[in-house]
Amino acid sequence: MPDIKKVVLAYSGGLDTSVILKWLQDNYHCEVVTFTADIGQGGEVEPARAKAKKMGVKEIFIDDLREEFVRDYVFPMFRANAIYEGEYLLGTSIARPLIAKRQIEIARKTGADAVSHGATGKGNDQVRFELGYYALDPNIHVIAPWREWNLTSRETLLAYAKKHGIPVEMKKKGGSPYSMDANLLHISYEGRMLEDPSREPEASMWRWTVAPEKAPQRPEYLELEYERGDIVALNGKRLTPAKVLARLNQIAGRHGIGRLDLVENRYVGMKSRGCYETPGGSVMLKAHRAIESLTLDREVAHLKDDLMPRYAALIYNGYWWSPERKLLQTLIDASQANVNGSVRLKLYKGGITVVGRDSRRDSLFDTAIATFEDDQGAYNQADAGGFIRLNALRMRIAARLGAKKKR
């Protein structure tokens, strides 16, 4: 093993990173600095501090990054309406570049010569973390325990934790806990019975959302106000980005909104099954597309839709810090200059319905032209005939040629 003097570990206090902390101390004989990013996982933060102290860690960083996370990562992603493979709102993916950035900053501050993470050798997160590390510090040494040790399953991790007296949340007799990741945008679940794609998730697994059939019998209405493509107010009250998302999670969660059961294609090549809860994000996506429908030029909107799958894949695969993602972001952000106004939505038993949108300053919806009533000459319907004939020209030529060939 290389001679490592100090390593900064991305530490959640969960099973994997708790085992890794001890493993680094025993195998690299180095000082370990722990870094826990508070990006909305709530109750995990202080237990992580206590666990790290118990393991003899002297430098413990727990940073409240909630506002930075939503403002500088979640909101820019939602300006693009990013969805991976048609369904996944990228809740885990978008948190990794921020964690990697802060980890490198801490490494520089503490004089650490290495960084470490708890991502497995089968998953996407190892790629996301390490592409971030190398983009921000090309000379950093990376320790990825899952690619080095012989602890090859959740069961062996649990045995290791038991041997060393490491407490584990949700430990269940006869099986290991779900692998979970939580932040202000979502919570994800993998492992255990979810590894069988044919089985329905246990009702007790879900934490943020009620079952749609148990949601309130009456719908709830929301109004979101936008400035330059970002939400600035909820129901008339201006809120910070993190507070907007936290409040939307609460409201949408009680209406059973945001559950997803997905088999996705990982960047490393395999398919995996995961379940996600993204209540606030589901509302944000619906509302943002609604305000764009009123304020974006048709070709700009279609260009964004063409680019979105590529942009989403860049985030999913870990290329947030890449030049191509930054270039796309510049284009996307420029498109949002006139995305201003408000959207009204109805939430009811797992569903989100847009019931109104308004942009008095930037709306491209012209009632005088769009009306089915008398438009007072605003639109000459006779013009459509020439437009259609010109667009049909190539097909008419091809049809005539086909007819000649049949003679």
Separation, N- and C-terminal Cα atoms: 79 Å
Classify the helix fraction into a percent range: 40-55%
Radius of gyration: 25 Å
Q: Helix/strand-derived class?
A: alpha/beta
Structure description:
With 407 residues, this protein is α/β, with parallel strands linked by helices. Among the domains are: 147 residues, HUPs (Rossmann fold), CATH 3.40.50; 36 residues. The protein is 41% helix and 19% strand. The protein has twelve helices and 14 strands. It has a five-stranded parallel β-sheet, with helices on both faces.
Descriptors:
407 residues; alpha/beta; Rossmann fold; five-stranded parallel β-sheet; five-stranded antiparallel β-sheet; 12 helices; 14 strands; 41% helix; elongated
Describe the protein's topology.
Layout: E1 6-10, H1 15-27, E2 31-38, H2 45-54, E3 60-64, H3 66-79, H4 96-110, E4 114-116, H5 125-136, E5 141-143, H6 154-163, E6 179-182, E7 187-190, E8 220-227, E9 230-234, E10 237-238, H7 241-254, E11 259-265, E12 271-277, H8 279-295, H9 298-316, H10 323-335, E13 341-348, E14 351-358, H11 367-370, H12 383-406
Parallel strand pairs: 1-2, 1-4, 2-3, 4-5
Antiparallel strand pairs: 6-7, 7-12, 8-9, 8-13, 9-10, 11-12, 13-14
Helix pairs in contact: 1-6, 3-7, 4-5, 7-8, 9-10
